[in-house]
C-alpha cells in the first residue's frame, strides 16, 4: 500500500475466551470447549473453541442446545479477570505501534498504521509483527486483515481464521469485492439478504446494477451505505475513544417469572442501576428500552423517548410503563433487561459529523 491511502488493520483474537481456557488448562487442548453457564441453569455459550464449532456450537447459543449438538462438550465457567489480563497485554502491544487504536471489544480492534512507531511502510508487515508479538506475550493467536479502510479490513480478518492474515491491497479491492456475497456484511441479516436476492442481488457488486429507487424500496436507509460498500468506499476514521451510545443490564432467570410484581421489582432495580451509571458519567438519556424474552425464546423490546434525564424515579417509571406494553404476566418470562440510549452530555460542545450506519 502506497501513496495517500490509509493502512488499516483489523485484528481479532481467535476464539478468545475459549483459547485462554485451553492455554491455561492443558487438558482442554484439542477438545471441544464452551465458555458459559450450565445447561440445567439456562446457561448461554459466551465463546466456543474451534473444536466445538465443528459441531455447530456458536456463541449466544443456549448451552442446552450446544450439549445436544456436541455431547462431549467441556463447559467452563468464564473468568473475566484472566480474559481482561490477556486483553490488556494485547492492547499494550497495539498502542506501542500506533496511538490510533479503536477497541471493539476485549478481543478485537482497528488500528490505523499509516504512520507507525516501526516506520514500517507495509501494513502486512506490521500485522505479521503484531501477530508474532501477541503469540509471544500471551501464547494466543490472532487473525488480521490489512486493507485501505475499516470495512475491508474487518472482512479480511475473518477470511482465514484461525491465525490468519489476509491483505487487500488497493489493486486487489475490486477482485475481492467481486467474490463477496451480500450477506457477508455485518448488518445485512437473513431477512435483508433475502430481499436483496429476490431482486437478483447475490453479490455485493450486484448492488451497482440496480436502480437506486428500487434499492431504497428494498432496503430503505441501507441503500446508500450498500452502494458505497459495493465500490469499496469507507471513509470512517479509526477513532481511539468511541462514544458511549448506551448502557444497560439484563438477567436470564433460572426459572421462568410469572409474577408481574416480581418482574416490576427486577426492572425497577435495573433502571435504578442505569440511572446511577448516568449520574457517575454526568450523562442524561432520552430513551429507555426494556427487553423481554418469553419462555419460548420469543424476544420483544419496547422503548420510550422523552426529555433527557438521569433521574432514577423517572427512568423507573418509564421502564415499568413499558412493561405494560408486553405480554408479561400472561406469558412466562425468562429474561428481562433495561437500557438507556440517546445519551446527552450537557458539557459537550456541538456534536461531530454524523457516523455512517455501519454495524461494527
Written description of the protein model:
This protein is α+β, with helices and mostly antiparallel strands. The protein has three domains: 1-168, 2-Layer Sandwich (Alpha-Beta Plaits), CATH 3.30.70; 180-230, 5' to 3' exonuclease, C-terminal subdomain (DNA polymerase, domain 1, Orthogonal Bundle); 246-344, DNA polymerase, Y-family, little finger domain (Dna Ligase, domain 1), CATH 3.30.1490. Helices cover 35% and strands 23% of the residues. The protein is built from twelve helices and twelve strands. Strands 5-6-1-7-8 form a five-stranded mixed beta sheet. The chain has a four-stranded antiparallel beta sheet with strand order 9-12-10-11, with helices on one face. A three-stranded mixed beta sheet has the order 3-2-4. β2 and β3 form a beta hairpin. α4 runs antiparallel to α5 and α11 packs antiparallel against α12. The protein starts with 7 loop residues before the first strand and ends in a 16-residue tail after the last strand. Residues 349-360 have low confidence and may be disordered.
| β-strand number | 12
Overall number of domains: 3
Low-confidence stretches: 349-360
Q: Any idea of the CATH topology of the largest domain?
A: Alpha-Beta Plaits
> What is the class of the largest domain in the CATH system?
Alpha Beta
Mean pLDDT: 89
* First-to-last CA distance: 24 Å
Question: For the CA atoms, what is the radius of gyration?
Answer: 22 Å
Strand order of the largest sheet: 5-6-1-7-8
